[in-house]
Amino acid sequence: MSHSPRTAAGHSANPSGQDRRSFLQTSSVAGLAAAAIPFAWTRPAFANKSHNDRPRVGCIGVGSMGTGDARGHNHFGDIVAVCDVDWQHMRRAHHDENIGKGKSAIYDDYRRVLDRNDIDVVSIVTPDHWHVKIAVEALQAGKHVFCQKPLTLTLEENGLIRNACRACPDQVFFIGTQQRSNRDLFLRAVNMVQKGLLGDIRKITVGINGSPTGGPFDVADVPWQLDWEKWLGQAPLVDYREKRCHYQFRWWYEYSGGKFTDWGAHHVDIATWAIGQDDEGQGPVEIDGTDAQHPVEFKDGYPVVDDCYNSSHDFNIICRFENGIEMHVTSRGDNGVKFEGTKGRIFVNRERLTGLPIEENWDEGQYTDEDVVALYKGKPHEGHKANFYRCIAEGGLPVSDVYSHVQAMSTCHLAAIAARLNRVIRWDPVKEQITGDEQAAAMASRTPREGYEIPQI
Fold it and tell me: For residue 32, what pLDDT is reported?
């Protein structure tokens, strides 16, 4: 990865009294000294108490979501390194008693984490446009990988990460789609659909809300603690605006897919899993994006201004499958997933599971511990990250696997492309190609900035 000068804007003075470079140097040395014996599971348990049996974890990206995930990993392994391009994020995680405990190494370059042979697991919780590059290189480095959703930025990246996982079968790759571990709500809904208790599914409504609107936002000085050039990564080098960075990156197509990939990575995943459209070669064949609005003007699928949020805030995208099912991916109505079958309908989100089939317990005797184990790919049901570490200990595919996830992400990315072009596009799920529309097909990939290319395995 290249290290271009920060040309986008200047920096303000460091108010902390300790410069970034010296903190990185002293913390990295301390963390390396603390590294201990290589990871070795001695029994098929996922959270051993013995220090020697706990994996060593490197956390790449420790902002708001990354902090929560790092604290979760702390229950199962020893966090020996934290990495972020924001100095304040690194420092906070380093001192957090549930993350670095003041002992972890600190890095602003994720490659230094991957270089360490004593690190067994990496947790990737960066902005979306960094996920696949880091994940592929982590697999090449022999690490088990936890990566937050949405895993991919483009349709092309789906194939890149899938191929990398196939080439590295000894490593466990796990996605942060935690709804797959919710027994009382999402798993019960999926089981009910898969058992045919609702009859033949005709329509699914996936409510994912719309992106916020905002702007124009002014150009600003890059904060002293942030390496803006590294944060941008494969994306074009542009001036710093506060609302482009950290949590708000989600509302810019340059770095994410708006709500299509933010909530879509959760709810579209549940929907495609339930109807058995989560295997390679499956997916929608037609995506209607004619009912979609954006907060700024678009031309040829791209925003004409660079100072406002640009992901869609109002949409109803209709994804049609070969078997006749229609999936409406919409910003309107309740957040959640509604399944409508020939016998009944149910609605599920993170707060409730409703509908006459639930009120009358249509799944009585048909939603057993064995059914849950089957949904968990043969593993006992437990907390989401526990499944990840169990698979590291015992082998097997985790409940949130890369192969089903990229199928859901295909639908999410196709919905975004159709919305950006405001038209109907067609998809060949077997060839994984947009057909009959060269302009739409060109949006299946993006040319990364020089020095930030993704390795192909």
Answer: 41
**Distance between CA atoms of 405 and 175, rounded to whole angstroms?**
8
Is residue 90 predicted with pLDDT exceeding 90? yes
Which pLDDT value is given to residue 53? 78
Structural domain boundaries of the chain? Answer: 20-178, 180-374+401-442
Residue 234: burial class (beta carbons within 10 Å; 0-12, 13-18, 19+):
buried
- Fold observed for domain 180-374+401-442: Dihydrodipicolinate Reductase; domain 2 (3.30.360)
Q: Are 90 and 108 in contact (CB under 8 A)?
A: yes
Give exposure, 45-59, as e/b (b: 16+ Cβ within 10 Å): ebbbeeeebbbbbbb
Name the pLDDT band for 50 (thresholds 50, 70, 90): low
pLDDT at 164: 98
Confidence (pLDDT) at 15:
41
Residue 417 predicted with pLDDT over 90 = yes
Tokens of residue 156, six digits: 């092309």
Alpha-carbon distance 390 to 370, whole Å? 18
CA–CA separation, 308 and 403 (whole Å): 34
What are the helix (H) ranges across 116-185?
A: 131-140, 155-167
Over residues 93-115, the mean pLDDT reads 98
- Into which CATH architecture does domain 20-178 fall? 3-Layer(aba) Sandwich (3.40)
CB 8 within 8 A of CB 230: no
Between CA 344 and CA 201 the distance in angstroms is 9
Radius of gyration of the chain (CA): 22
| pTM value > 0.70 | yes
Q: Which residues contact 8 (CB under 8 A, 6 or more apart)?
A: 222, 228, 229, 232, 237, 238, 239, 240
Name the token pair of 125.
Answer: 């919780």
Q: What is the mean pLDDT of residues 433-449?
A: 98
Per-residue pLDDT, 205:
98
Distance CA 277, CA 17 (A): 55
Per-residue pLDDT reduced to its tens digit, 220-251: 999 999 999 999 999 999 999 999 999 999 99
Locate 440 and state its tokens.
């739409």
Counting every residue written for the chain, the total comes to 457
Please give the mean pLDDT across all residues of the chain.
91
d(CA 91, CA 149): 24
Instruction: Answer whether the bond into residue 15 is a cis peptide, omega within 30°.
Output: no
Determine phi and psi for 108, rounding to 5 degrees: -110, 10
Q: How far apart are CA 59 and CA 61, in angstroms?
A: 6
